[in-house]
Write a structure and sequence with these properties.
Blueprint (H helix, E strand, L loop, with lengths): L8 E2 L1 H5 L7 E7 L7 H5 L6 E4 H5 L10 H10 L7 E7 L2 H12 L5 E4 L2 H7 L30 E2 L1 H7 L6 E4 L3 H4 L24 E2 L15 H10 L8 E4 L4 H13 L5 E4 L2 H5 L10
Parallel strand pairs: 1-5, 2-3, 2-4, 4-5, 6-10, 7-8, 7-9, 9-10
Length: 286
Amino acid sequence: MTEIKPPALVDSAWLAARLDARDVRIIEIAGIGQDDRTAYQAGHIPGATCWNWKPMLWDSHIRDFPSPEVFAQRMSAAGIGNDTTVVVYGEPMQFGAYAWWVLHYCGHERVCVLDGGRRRWIADGHPLVTADGTGTPAPAPVVHTRAARNENMRAGREHVLAAIGQPRTLILDARSPPEYRGERVGAPGAPDVGAVRYGRIPGARHLEYRELLGADERFRPRSELRALFEARGADAHDPVIAYCRMSHRATVLYFAMTVLLGYQKARVYDGSWTEWGSMVGVPIER
């Protein structure tokens, strides 16, 4: 029997107690720089399968998310039914939050983020297993029926354009300081690519996603998170739009706002700077 809806943020003890549960699937999301699944091959949580983020979470041809029909097919093939609890963690960390956001957006509600991911799992004394070249075998296919998208989670460029200059709508930039200042379009340590113009969306306040996390990559206490958002002018009752370069880091802000702090009107602009910094005629601030 499927248990009640799980919490959106779970710790290592919660997951360790459910490693053998038939209705739980553990997914490591291989993000940018992990195309060959290096971290997963070196050691992953027992029972976890690995998804490369783009083939599983995006449409195969256009920059969008899979249609409801394709999403249901992918979940079915991955052994995930509508009542399956999916626990995600990322490499890097933000890809776990991104997978949580995409799965929720596409209509799968039983999704949890493992707080602290692999790093906290190890720190808490839990074992990793290594892959034999193929990894954990995929579960047998099951039925996942079509679900409606949750469009209230997502902002498009038209929402952002309308929000510029509106005092009740806050735009938050989750990128690194050099990106926010207009010195880079790519994150430090990575190729400086991703858009044709440097800068930020006019009026955007800066809140780098790393500020929300401790050294072990767990979310900071709610009181500290609330203070960080309020220092940027955020109000739990007013609209907030979060963005970064491709929206992975922005979903960390969205998770903290909606799950941990109870914000009701937060959205992610998933086009983020790769779209905004390459569009003709939109305003840019430096």
